[in-house]
TrEMBL record:
Gene Ontology MF terms in the entry: anaerobic carbon-monoxide dehydrogenase activity; carbon-monoxide oxygenase activity; copper ion binding; iron ion binding; molybdenum ion binding
Highest taxon, organism lineage: Bacteria
Record PANTHER family: ALDEHYDE OXIDASE 1-RELATED, XANTHINE DEHYDROGENASE
EC identifiers of the protein: 1.2.5.3
The protein's required cofactors: Cu(+); Mo-molybdopterin cytosine dinucleotide
Catalytic reaction list: CO + a quinone + H2O = a quinol + CO2
Purpose of the protein: Catalyzes the oxidation of carbon monoxide to carbon dioxide.
Entry keyword Oxidoreductase: yes
Enzyme class: oxidoreductase
Domain called Aldehyde oxidase/xanthine dehydrogenase a/b hammerhead: residue spans: 32-141
Name under which the protein is recorded: Carbon monoxide dehydrogenase large chain
Amino acid sequence: MKDEVQSPEERSAGLKGMGCSRKRVEDVRFTQGKGNYVDDIKLDGMLTGDFVRSPYAHARIKSIDTEAALAVPGVLAVLTAKDLEPLGLHWMPTLAGDKQMVLADGKVLFQGQEVAYVVATDRYAAADGVAAVEVDYEDLPVVTDPFKAMDPDAPVLREDLAGQTEGAHGPRRHHNHIFTWEQGDRAATEAVLAEADVVAEEMVYYHRTHPMPLETCGCVASMDKVTGKLTLWGTFQAPHAVRTVASLISGIAEHNIRVISPDIGGGFGNKVGVYPGYVCSIVASIVTGKPVKWVESRMDNLMSTAFARDYWMQGKIAATKEGKITGLWCHTTADHGGFDACADPTKFPAGFMNICTGSYDIPVAYLAVDGVYTNKAPGGVAYRCSFRVTEAAYFIERMIEVLAIKLNMDAAELRRINFIRKDQFPYQSALGWEYDSGDYHTAWEKALNAVGYDALRREQAARLEAFKRGETRKLIGIGLTHFTEIVGAGPVKNCDILGLGMFDSCEIRIHPTGSAIARLGTISQGQGHATTFAQIIASEIGIPADDITLEEGDTDTAPYGLGTYGSRSTPVAGAATAMAARKIRAKAQMIAAYLLEVHDDDVEFDVDRFVVKGAPERFKTMKEIAFASYNQAIPGVEPGLEAVSYYDPPNMTYPFGAYICVMEIDVDTGEHEVRSFYALDDCGTRINPMIIEGQVHGGATEGYAIAMGQEIAYDDMGNHKTATLMDFFVPTAWETPHYTTDFTVTPSPHHPIGAKGVGESPNVGSVPCFSNAVHDAFRPFGLVQSHMPHDHWRIWKIAEDLGLHG
Ligand code: PCD
């Protein structure tokens, strides 16, 4: 057989296992238009639901008249809070311990809020019905500024919370206050600040933005009145959690609910939460006895489902004259909109914002976060970052630059002086995390060398001189960032969502002929899980990745898992995959030993087979072993070859990266050109280098959008100003910079294959990098801090304010 003459290296290459840039198996269907998204689902007699949304940001609802709407041909029902109230479904719990109106109950708190749900035979009839619903509003004073929201006489937004001084995360100080979250040692940090040689202080704002997946959120609910079973297809990043929550709030037994996430066109955190559209569609299906589809429009999506960021971070950073950081202080005001619907693990009301000491060895630190209600959409989702890590990274990477200015130091050098050293890992941070592994100095030197840092600084200085001489109107900015992520939630002991511990799972079944199916508790939204997780199994048990089907997202078949967000799939479900595969390998070893008539310990694994130690010509391939497990009675061994693993990670993983951006800025027009962008990522063991590169390109492009133009903006009346793609900047291929990717490999010591997550890293790292480049260009003229997004106008305004327009 050909097989037997192949070298182990050849056999190994044939598996397309870990480390192989295997082509994405998903793309065969995606590139041919054969994906199956929620809106592709068409069921017999299926109805459509659509929302009447509030034009006001804050108003009392005096009446809702549905009569004209019900007369529209094709309209079957119009649901309002009054209809949901007897079912106890007019409000629903949020993931953050708050509650949220499903349909406006007496008042509205943000523009675009769901007021009534129209059910009709098709989308057009539903739209006509929506237009015919008459709502009588009485407008109320609006608060869009989180600081003004805390004024003593600010309007009361959440009347339902009147008199409640205790919130889900401790005492509330004011009627628009949600929580205060404190971490670290305040007294020690303040003492350090008081005595420090140098203290740099700045307000760093990370503006409100939106994940904006290409596919908006949606679902199809189908209640089968005969069997009593509810099937819910939807764009869910956590299908099992949706099933449990749906059961708890609807009272339908969990085994009678089947949740299916079909193909998803990007999630980015937007599809983690539970939205009114899901609840209303389920109710409508129960009421009408027909399947009901609800799919958001682009405006619906940008106006009402999960925004991201909106953190005002006041920082103080202390250092010695030589630049050694001695302490960090941060007070954050978090604008949560009308309801606290953040998607964070329960015990972390500000997510993992306490990773804000970043890549630096900072002995003492203090963080306080105040969550505040305003008349904006709810959400606060971890848009391509593990629960506020991107805010934390932006904060510290700006504070480092601000400190470098104060110290009159090179910011690359300042970072170098303060990095956590390789020998300090596992590293205990001042704000409570244990970083698993890292080698920041090596990554940093590699990055600086790769871009030719010293030469770049010389070029920048020469350009500055030319600018001053009037020979050019373009400045050069060099943006530096070294970020540390925290991904893979993650230890069940401190991470849960609505009480569900954040483990994850994988089940593997080997078929008699040696091919396999694996099912996971996670769900790909474009990341390529079907490609990469099969690669882990291929390397672990020696079955070619091409012979492994990978399935996710159907709660009737997949093992329970907490889903995909927070770059947790590789750290948690990826670990479960390796562990389940190892169970299979252990059983295969027993079978092989039996077949080869030797003791279990006398065979060893070799790529795709077990060989007798010292007698390499005597072996059984995994294919043979698989068949034997189904066709032979093996004493003491159960038939079949299957395993499942539920994995509770002992710690999170801490990927990191060194990013450098070179930008040209036109002082007169405010236009910029990204001349180069270098991204070095360390995500431990790399499963699929090509997919990693794709992740970095995608995440960095989202980061580019956020830093350079994208925002969710409101006017003083709470009108949403950026609810279409005319106003909300999404880069096309035209604007997207060119990226150079690179890597180092520092495995995670506690992960079975040493892998860390990577999907979020490029968003976390690139935003401060782009922003620092803009700031750096104007540093010689005294710019210290200017808020994102750095669109052309805002950059022009920096130059104007600095007097550079003459
Ligand atoms: N990897 C490899 N290696 C390593 C790592 C990793 O290979 N070392 C790969 C894996 O396997 C996959 C990816 O890569 O495939 C990713 O991974 P991760 O990091 O683990 O992650 P995941 O979990 O899977 O995912 C998640 C993420 C997130 S979070 C986000 S936002 C985003 C990212 O992912 N999203 C998305 N990316 C992406 N892509 C796409 N395409 N789409 C989408 O949607 Mo959140 O929290 O949700 O916000």
